[in-house]
Amino acid sequence: MKKKALAFAAMACSMAMLLSACGGSNSNTASGNTAGSNIIYAYNSEPQNPLIPGNTNETGGGKPGDLLFSRLVSFDKDGNASNEVAESITPNDDATQYTIKLKSGWKFTDGTPVTAESFTKSWSYTANAKNAQKCSSFFSTIKGYDDLQKDGLKGDEQLSGLKVVDDTTFTVDLNQSDSVFPIKVGYLAFAPLPESFYKDPKAFGEAPVGNGPYKFKSWDHNKQIELVKNTDYKGNEDVKNDGVTFKVYTDDTAAYRDIQSNNGSLDVMESVPAAFTKTFKTDKKIQPYSEAGSVIQTFTIPSTLDHFKNDEEGQLRREAISMAIDRDQIIDKVLNGNATAAKDFTSPKTPGYSDSLTGSDNLKFNAKKAKELWAKADAISKYTGTLTFSYNADGGAKPLYDAVVNQLKKNLGIDAATNPIPTFQEFRDAVTNRQMTGAFRTGWQPDYPSAENYLWQLYSTAAADGKGSNDGDYKNSAFDQLCLQAAAAKTTDEANKLYQQAQEILLKDLPAIPLYYSNANGVASLSVKSGFGFDWQNLPTYTEMSKK
Q1: Which of 66, 105, 128, 402 is least surrounded by Cβ atoms within 10 Å, i.e. has the fewest?
Q2: CA 377, CA 374: separation in Å to the nearest integer?
Q3: Can you tell me whether residue 299 is helix, strand or coil?
Q4: Widest Cα–Cα separation across the chain
Q5: Predicted confidence band at 476 (pLDDT cuts at 50, 70, 90)?
Q6: pLDDT digit string (tens) for 359-409?
Q7: What is d(CA 25, CA 28) in angstroms, rounded to the nearest whole number?
Q8: Contact, 192 vs 85, CB < 8 A?
Q9: From CA 111, how far away is CA 365, in angstroms rounded?
Q10: Which parts of 97-140 fold into alpha helices (H)?
Q11: Could you tell me the CA-to-CA distances from 40 to 60, 227, 243, 341 in Å, in that order?
């Protein structure tokens, strides 16, 4: 996620993007699932917001959004990029300008054409602070972005760095070199929008018009979102089913049991409830999947929180908390081995990953040193409060945060408590509105396969203060500068070395505490005859699944 804040999943995001519906079977469960139909019923959480690409940075909305909107490029299940709506994306010598040509013939599902302006207006709308879109910071490298962050805007001002040449050509001028840009545009926030969007954005969000492999049919809030195959789609996906219906669950155990029942109520979920992690791989009533994945699970302590700010005291406390957590024990006892202890802020599937960066010792269990660090912090300013850990109660996170709190009480001797929030939507609203007064669960499902996505989008100053996914409002100019240098690098190796240096700053400051990398774990019903698998985002391969 967004995407990808994750609605959790005991093992899996989220944004990302990940989870929850009707709490189990009810009269609505098998709606439309008649004999012989080839509709895939997929597990989901209620989206935090209406289905507008630029305002979607969590997986409840990101999963249907990705199927409704095709972007300039798409990714195969291994994360390899290919042009989709784009015919070509051509940089100049220093990657500060790109010329983008579109393939002809693309249309939205309302029959209107996808043009260059469909992209430039959409990107400008998302970037414009007046419109308060959660993915605004993704456009921060395009010229004119700063002008669209000023007060007094109307909301229809355009990014000056975007120029329409003709119906199928536009140019993008950047305020810095950005070698990741041709991959970044595969993220949902960069989707084109039809003219109908601007007439009534609110209504559009309830019934979106896209250009992707599926088209919108209906949204019964807190129950399900129905998508049907877009027969006019001409992109890279080979859709093997007639539609995907995302079912909203508030109880992941109920969802798993619905899949076990094989009664057509639910076909696939990208997580496994804690109670089934020991048995799902040998469960004959389901189809299991478990492979190394790309999702990282963390928790964030706001940088504005007293005693935990980005200063000497705050850094000591963050290091102490991180070292007081025995990640291997949690993975073994709570997750039944279905994860890997985090060594950095990306994932083992990310280009440039390293498990031996300077500062990675801060992610290793060391109770003795943790107590010493906490005592040093107390010598600066005594802490007598209770550190709370908030999470969404509808996603299976309770066992994890019970374990974290118990370890901190035992290994660090501090007062800690959990603070479950009923639904993912309420939880994310509290994060978005900066209402958290303690630590809170975070995680990231990549939007595109680059360290930049895990780093710049989550921890840069540009992504703070509600302009992106920097939920803890961490700010460090040295970190920002290294990321900018990496984006301007001439080679991938050079860029990855700079991203590693940037990570070493994060490993010292710990704006979030990395816990573990989730396995891509999930299950499908026996009704699914082919195509069940997971992609580079730890999400099911929805388009490939079929009941025939």
Answers
A1: 105
A2: 5
A3: strand
A4: 69
A5: very high
A6: 999 999 999 999 999 999 999 999 999 999 999 999 889 999 999 999 999
A7: 8
A8: yes
A9: 58
A10: 116-127
A11: 16, 10, 6, 33
